[in-house]
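Limitations

Structures in this collection are predictions, not experimental determinations, and the ligand pose is part of the prediction. Treat each record accordingly. The example that follows, with 6-phosphogluconic acid as the small molecule, is included so readers can see exactly what is and is not provided: the inputs are given verbatim, and the output is the predicted complex.
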Amino acid sequence: MSASAESTPSIHVFDDAGEVAQAAAERIVDLAHKAIAARGRFSLALAGGSTPKRIYELLASEEFAGRFEWPQVHVFFGDERCVPPDHADSNYRMASEALLSRVPLPEVNIHRMIGEGDAVANARLYEDELREFFDGANWPAFDLVMLGMGDDGHTASLFPGTRALQEQQAWVAANWVEKFDTFRITLTAPAINHAAHVMFIVTGAGKTDRLPEVLSGAREPERLPSQLIRPVAGALDWYVDSSAGAKL
Ligand code: 6PG
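Predicted complex:
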């Protein structure tokens, strides 16, 4: 990661998860319009887990769906569990049920991380797909990467003490996560850090203690991998509710 001055995170605290979802959805529409006006397309990497589902459902709702030029929107994934796409734990399945199956997004614009099968091979395949989409660039230039943060401070599938935290060349990694006894496929920190915008969505009391540690505690990215996310030139926004942000 270059030593260029990194952007200062913008922290947005809202009363509740509903207000977080509304504000995040508005921001995503705005970023999509600007990206499509400037470059004819909007590349969005979705977060997994449970928090963003509400935002995806909102984006698919009557209030928002008509505000996107879906044929110009390309959807990627920040990480995926090593399960089939119809598995209850699949991030793809969650996003498909909440959003992708409910909007006129061309199938070719949905870039699924293959969870089933050989994780190492699938990580390489996804990196190949990204390199093709980003036309041989040195790093992927997502217009927006959405991220969640786990209670342990992980983000995407960059878990504390795992090998992918050290990755500085690959865009995508098959990351062995001991505590789950499984591989996860994940964008690497440098791949995320070359995005134009990164948006963390963090809600709930489970994150109350960890959030201030990540945002203003000592720098310990091995223990708090969300601290690795410092866009080289892009913007970093944290959308949090009053529960998660109670100790900020
Ligand atoms: C995943 C996610 C992961 C998630 C955090 C927060 O695949 O689980 O990518 O990084 O964002 O674990 O999850 P919640 O939103 O469910 O708290």
